[in-house]
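YM 10:42: NADPH-dependent FMN reductase sequence, as discussed on the call
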Amino acid sequence: MFAGPDLELPMYEPQSLARTPAALELVKALRDADAVVVASPGYHGAVSGLVKNALDYIEDLREDPRVYLDNTPWGCISCAYGWQAAVGTLGQLRSIGHALRAWPTPLGVAINSAEQIWSDSGELTDGPVRDQLDLLATQLLNFAVSGTGAQ
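YM 10:58: structure's back
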């Protein structure tokens, strides 16, 4: 899992081959992944810059035997303070997955953080959101095991 500080990478520059150790670690993890879950906050109705910059490093996989994330199951989760940004961001994550030749799961999860879904201790307490996340995980695992994305 790569989150927050793990994604504080230099701005992706396609013309530069220099990579930080953190960028190399991210690219290797994506290269080796059987499935990918990408989650982003919806900032001003869009994918966060931090997440988008990290995803731009997938360009380093363009000449791999598996180009980009070809036939890789791709799960999407967005979280925003309101449905408009949450759903808009989810759509962008799905589009990014398609552009990277990945196979977005049928279900993507948009979470409206304006609603009370977390306990004071940070535990997910919203049953429908938990059920959606469980279904997303099931779809990813089924796709990865069966090779559904490759068909």
